[in-house]
């Protein structure tokens, strides 16, 4: 049994001018100890998917449907109380903005300690001791001094380390990292990724990594899910996905990624871009969600939504024309 | 920190001096002969002369201002034209009821309004939120004395639960004191509650949108901890600021409330002084209230560090 | 690509061999955006209600003589303190005057005071705020003076001013206006200072646009929205202050039927004849409520970002 099974997840929002179908029928699973990346452009529903797993979507105006099974239990059926016991304890989360994700008026120690006091019933003193330990673990120098400090006294990289310390304090089985490095400097990015990889091995947690950065994906993920306009359009292990992408959208994404050492060859190295914009999620799209931007789209694509099909072992894609043996016949 | 406090305290001195200058000058920027205006329409020339002399109107303006300020610094606010008592004595006699009323109202209003605003923000868009917002707009719209009469009519005259009017000194016991102050406090508190509830809701709504609230939820923190620990502490600075500014409403409202409930306080003194055109008394009361207002807001400014560690002086 | 089956638009079912995704059910009921006049009212209910009530009060004030009123100042000692009846809808006061007529005419005083103070303090505040936001030397002096004025609670300032002048509607308007000016000036100054930092204003300055032109084109239009909202709140506050001043005997002369005066006269008798206080109180509250609702609605409509907050 997989650690996490998401089945037909739909997360919709009520807005004054229509229902926004941010996530519309996404299924995937995460095995224990595995690192799965969810990639896509901003607005494709990847963050909403991750927030839905922990039920952090305000309801109303949002509504989550489908099933999210964690160790066999459907999280959507749990009471608020039961859900709180899971958050920060068995499943924890790291967010994109380290500058704003920590509470400015509480000390770092108190914020790390809060998780421990909530889930492990530690006293204030024990929690602070453990917080010092956690700060050491995530590589913050002078942890004894730092626990008493406030977030504004720390740099961005340090704050993200604190976020990681908070997330890992209770040894979660699943860590959801929503763009954990996007807001950081490139050098700090590498350090944080390294730290996550290192700690993952130590703690043994599975990771769901939400990112738009394919470089990060290639470095840390084992399996990749590609999302577009609220739907999963492709899923495969990292190697096959990068070497043999089936879905035109994935091909577009990879084409728009700069490759090292290819920039000196003039015209042909121009980054490919995907023309057009992500469609509005407020209107129902009858056919394939990518048809409006797809270079290969036909009337069939515009009328019939393609099902996810296994195009190669362990490699699924939702495209009428993605051939089973290779890329699109073009 | 200490240097900052000293600087802030010193900075209020020019403000207070300016207030004193305004209050003093009001008498002389008004059109016509101040002595005649104060004396009223039925005054004899002798009355006008007497007032002119008692106000020292025969001396040059700056000399008078200097003497007046010097007097205030020495605890002398002049003499009432009507009773011939020193203004400070009259104020001292009337200060307890007003202080009681305002402190009680402050406590009552803050302890009702802040939870109300938090609740409304938490339940944004629901019936509860609308009820709170509806109450707030009513609080701004129904004048203090209307609320006062309404409360007195229902709870004192019809139900006979509380005394209609009057004041009992604190020295006569806590409960008799409280009994007389409940209705005036509620009446006076209405607009203040509306103001604080509204700013609390607005600030909380903004804070609840912040990323660190999402982090707290993701940690498994409970609703009350999110609202009162994570959010309210971040919302404290604007709320406390408005509580301080709102004291102006309490001061203005106290004048009216004391009239409605026949409380012998400074507000009542002001009204009587107006009717008698007893200008030294009016000056004294306005000056006192303004100084208190400035000082309270100074203290609040200095208290910001308690709520937000990012604020450093 | 050549192998693609081309479907005619009319064809609904997928052709054989094409795997169609199962359609997703609706999780939430559909939302229909409202348009037109009804839509406007549904989106801005506060503005609609406030505007309607205020319009009603304005009509009452204008057409008071036609609304079955009698002379509001006519004394009739023979029919003192009558309870409300078919003859005297709101009863009569201690001098036998018809409370209904007095209350209707009282709307005139309140509205005139409210509107005049709102307009005057906006214009003066706008001017002072502009000067303060543009002339550095004037700024520090003006703002010190405003600080001083704002340190005196507004009602007390108005009381102190009124204590020195003979009661008249004009003096009440002046006194309340003086008390309200600092707030408007500060608001305008704040807006001006933040606008001057805006890239498009800086660009206009860099391009050599003259200051009066910048004020006319960029600054003034952007201050209008906040100042309009502020003006409605000032109008509401001024009506309350007028009533308070009259109520404590420092407002309009007793001969003028203003709501504050009617209540002041009913004060002595309020325990036995509460209706004399009741009717003007209700009218005053409704009028102020109408203006406040209008202000809230305006603020929501003019500043969508603020709408969610306050």
Automatic annotation (TrEMBL), chain A:
It is a peripheral membrane protein. GO terms for biological process: peptide transport; transmembrane transport. Residues 4-254 form the ABC transporter domain. InterPro entries: AAA+_ATPase (IPR003593), ABC_Ni/Peptide_Import (IPR050388), ABC_transporter-like_ATP-bd (IPR003439), ABC_transporter-like_CS (IPR017871), Oligopep_ABC_C (IPR013563), P-loop_NTPase (IPR027417). PROSITE patterns: ABC_TRANSPORTER_1, ABC_TRANSPORTER_2. CDD domains: ABC_NikE_OppD_transporters. SUPFAM superfamilies: P-loop containing nucleoside triphosphate hydrolases (SSF52540). It is found in: Cell inner membrane. The keyword Membrane applies. Gene3D superfamilies: P-loop containing nucleotide triphosphate hydrolases (3.40.50.300). GO terms for cellular component: plasma membrane. GO terms for molecular function: ATP binding; ATP hydrolysis activity. Keywords: ATP-binding, Cell membrane, Membrane, Nucleotide-binding, Transport. The keyword Nucleus does not apply. Belongs to the ABC transporter superfamily. This is ABC transporter ATP-binding protein.
TrEMBL record, chain B:
InterPro entries: BPD_transp_1_N, MetI-like, MetI-like_sf. The keyword Transport applies. Gene3D superfamilies: MetI-like (1.10.3720.10). Pfam families: BPD_transp_1, BPD_transp_1_N. The keyword Protease does not apply. Keywords: Cell membrane, Membrane, Transmembrane, Transmembrane helix, Transport. The chain crosses the membrane at residues 9-30, 99-122, 134-157, 177-197, 235-261, 281-307. CDD domains: TM_PBP2 (cd06261). Belongs to the binding-protein-dependent transport system permease family. GO terms for cellular component: plasma membrane. SUPFAM superfamilies: MetI-like (SSF161098). GO terms for molecular function: dipeptide transmembrane transporter activity. It is a multi-pass membrane protein. This is ABC transporter permease. It comes from Roseicella aerolata. Residues 95-304 form the ABC transmembrane type-1 domain. It is found in: Cell membrane.
